[in-house]
Amino acid sequence: MKLTNTSRYPTDEVALLVEFAMGEIDHERLAVHVKNASIAYRGRAYDGVPRISSRAKDADIDRLVTIGIGSPQHFPLTTVHTEVKWVRVTKPIPTLNETFRERREKDGQVVLERRVISQHGYGGKRSPVLEFANWREALVSVAAHEGRHIWQYQS
User: Fold this and answer.
1) Residue 99 and residue 46 share a domain
2) Which domain does 134 fall in, by range?
3) Are residues 61 and 85 in the same domain?
4) What are phi and psi of 24, to 5 degrees?
5) pLDDT band of 96, cuts 50, 70, 90
6) pLDDT tens digits, residue range 1-10?
7) Are residues 38 and 9 in the same domain?
8) pLDDT, average across residues 6-35
9) Per residue in 63-77, is it b (16+ CB within 10 Å) or e — as a string?
10) What's the predicted TM-score (pTM) here?
């Protein structure tokens, strides 16, 4: 693995964490670029190397992973995603902590809607909620996730 670290975090520690997270995959022809991010974390796995990448001309590299890790102020955090939907109802049933609204449709008819709030992991209703205490945990999680994509490309 060829690691490039332009993030605010120490290269020795970043290398150790990325190696740990991607330890199970064949990463001999893989380039990993860890950089700063304006959000808590992000990642991308490429099946190939984009022409714009500094690794594009490197004949020893077949695939690329980019990982962005935000500043320490972003942590701790969870991956809880809150979804708000408005569901049409015929008449209000007063219950605690529910909000109703009236909305006018295109034909002029007024309909009543009830707000429904649900929370789940970022990846969907069946996704686990992850908690990251610090940048290290986020880096390991993103590197492992993107490493899985690299494994899928190799299979």
Assistant:
1) no
2) 2-73+130-154
3) no
4) -85, -10
5) low
6) 999 999 999 9
7) yes
8) 95
9) bbbbbbbbeeebbeb
10) 0.78
